[in-house]
Give the backbone structure.
Amino acid sequence: MVLDWCKDQGIIWDESPSNGVVRRLMNRDDWAALRHATMRQPLIMPPSTLTPLKDINPGQIPSKDHALFGQTLIGNVQKGGRSEGVNVLKSFLNDRGQRYLLTLSKPGVSARHCSRLSAHIAYGTLSIREIEQETQRRIKELSLTNSEPNAYFIRNLWAFLSRLAWRCHFVQKLEQQPCIEFRCMHPAFEGMREDSFNDAYFDAWKQGRTGYPLVDACMRSLHQNGWITFRMRAMLVSFASYHLWLDWRQTAPFMAGLFTDYEPGIHYSQFQMQSGVTGINAVRIYNPLKQSIDQDPNGIFIKRYVPELKNISPTWIHEPWRNPQVLTAYPLPIVDHALAIKQARHQISIRRNSQGFHEEETAVVKKLASRKGKVKPIAKKSDKTTPHTQLTFKF
């Protein structure tokens, strides 16, 4: 470790807190208070002048197109840089954020009304502390005028603030247990999917050719834009983990390479949650048909990214295979929805009912869980599902 090396060399290593993460935290009991205290601290402003160091040759500074930085970006990846980040924050607080909650889960329109600050936070062009303080300032400004539009705008901004805290909470998990990048939070789930990995399913998922229109549209959109809203990310992971029964340790690195706003703490915590291997969270299986009907009822987003279906009517856009008269280059579903989730639930229930499961669950809660409330497993035993049923259950 770098810290151990510094100690051996007699080098003092000072660490500055980053975005609410507390280094070497013993337990989560005091984390929220420490995080909120950090957010209230004054911002450290950049110096007005910089004095260059003498007699130092910086060498040749590589251009942005240098091979060091990987392949040239393609598609509509959002712009980076400090000034761009500041402009994005201003536009969200002054205008775009008014429809934040209304469009949060919808692919397509969410690209405008979500904050779009995640990449700037990940690359450090903006800090969570300055974003939070600017949002608080805007809330106070809106509170000066008592009107229904302002009250609704304020509600949206409070929801945004809660998600900033939520982000810090998940990054803190990786700080406290770095191995969650490679190992399930709950050891009972080790070995559950690894031996049954299906490469053909993996390729279809990566290419956006699973036969489920919204799943494929989201994946293709991600390839083109490097960003998609959270609910659609969760659906993509859920589909890979439950319907296709793919191990998260292979799907997670692939998606990490697609996200412009990739943040390991968020990424691996969420991959484990959406794959049902934390042992402390509700197992949520996103129904791709229900999500398609709810979030893209007329298939506008689907048709944008799955041109094979551009001439399909809204009646059939979510389940084109149900219309025998529709012949397209679009594939049939690679798995049966109802059968796949039934098999997934059975496999997960075996682990959750295994000896010693709840003792390990208690240890995970103590180390990594939120302190808002105690996690209580509840049963939902019914196996009766329809194509448009959403499943959330604990065993």
Remarks:
- The chain has two domains: 76-176, 181-393.
- The chain is about 50% helix and 0% strand.
- Residues 19 and 128 are 5 Å apart (CA to CA).
